[in-house]
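Morning F.,

Quick status update on the modeling queue. The single chain you submitted on Monday has been processed. Sequence for confirmation:
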Amino acid sequence: MARISAYPKHIPVQPEDYWIGTRASNLMTRNFTAKAVGEYINVSGAISMATCMLFKFKATNAGPGDVTGVPDETPFANITSLQINALDVSDQDTVGFLEYIVGTEIIISEQDQISVFGHYSIDSYTQIDDTTFYTMSLTYIGGPGVIEHDKQYNICSFVLSSEDNNTTYELDSIQNGPNSDIRLIGSDSTENIVKLEAGTNVTLTDTGSNILIDVVDMGDKNYVHLQDQASAIWTVRHNLNKFPSCTMVLSTGQQGYGDVTFIDENELTITFASVETGKAYIN
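Structure tokens below.
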């Protein structure tokens, strides 16, 4: 027999190309096609990917390596929970990983048609009595198609990029109060929850179709006191919660000079030598 290096290389590999190998059961030499090897890898899950698991969907009679819990050809958009065996197709125990990613997102995609998929967030993952099956509660985010009996599905931890420049949102519902949750429905059917928190410098007003957000200027606070009744003593209630500086401008347009007495952090008096009218600028 010639050395392997003497044979010409055949690139690319074609589905009906052959490899020579040995059948383990009887040690007989056999031909194995590239297509058959590929199908074995797909069906057995012999090659694994980090954060991905392989399951077969069974509408009935599910066992190890299977996912079930909904009728055959259920749209991904209608799936709110699935029952998943602890073992995937390759016999790897997936319980620890799935428990860890509760609260995050997954994508369930048909193995040979990646454009048939469901994108979900995982709400909970709990064992069904003493069986090897676990119920995974899901919230649908997006994805087309249906899940079909006897087909293989990759279940992978999945997160879309946080930057989204093409999605517009509409206000769907709000919860009033100091902390308001707003649910936004995107043009791509995604949902986002935005929390607005009111506080000392922020107020929220529900108009029915909008939320008005009023933010108080966080810069230096000021107040203008108008003294239109002539008096030698101006009493200024500024409510700035500080001991401010004062500049007086008389009604003649000239700067006024008076003695400033602070009553407290929110009130002061200005005493002039004679009765005056004008404005006091409190900063």
